[in-house]
Amino acid sequence: VQLQASGGGLVQAGGSLRLSCVASGRTFSTLNMGWFRQAPGKERDLVAAISNGAITYYVDSVKGRFTISRDNARNTMYLQMNSLKPDDTAVYYCAARRTSIRYDYWGQGTQVTVSS
């Protein structure tokens, strides 16, 4: 599985961005997907996840502002980010896993910068 993330950019606080992650292959619908982010000097943390059954999870800091979704027909996962804050500045990575707890497949990352 190869993942390609896109959609990052520079936005002012309060603005919005939508990230996309396109997966290769024919098994996207069976994958459990997630968005991670890594700020400078910090660890890479899970932000949101969506299962192959479309069950979603969000870290508390993004609840009510971010929405994760998937389009299996397009092999694509999205992260709609609204009301962005400077603390959301990070490189965002998409990732996929099958049945294991560990995410086995990673995209290349896309930079999100939120200015105050």
Structure explained in plain terms:
By secondary structure, the chain is mainly β. The chain contains no helices and eleven strands. It has strands spanning 3-6, 9-12, 17-23, 32-38, 45-50, 56-58, 66-71, 76-81, 90-97, 105-106, 110-115. Strands 2, 4, 5, 6, 9, 10 and 11 form a seven-stranded mixed beta sheet that branches. A four-stranded antiparallel beta sheet has the order 1-3-8-7, with no helix packed on it. Strand 5 and strand 6 form a beta hairpin. It starts with a strand and ends with a strand. The mean pLDDT is 97.
Any key phrases for this structure?
mainly beta; 116 residues; 11 strands; seven-stranded mixed sheet; globular; single chain; 51% strand
TL;DR of this structure?
The protein has 116 residues and is an all-beta fold. It has strands at 3-6, 9-12, 17-23, 32-38, 45-50, 56-58, 66-71, 76-81, 90-97, 105-106, 110-115.
Give the strand content: over 45%
Pick out the low-confidence regions: none
Could you tell me the mean pLDDT?
A: 97
- The number of strands is 11
Biggest sheet descriptor: 7 strands, mixed
> Please, how many helices?
0
SSE pattern, N- to C-terminal: EEEEEEEEEEE
Percent of residues in helical segments? under 10%
Structural class category: mainly beta
N-end to C-end Cα span:
37 Å
Question: Radius of gyration from the CA trace?
Answer: 13 Å
Judging from the principal axes of the Cα atoms, what is the shape? globular
**Assembly context of the chains:** single chain
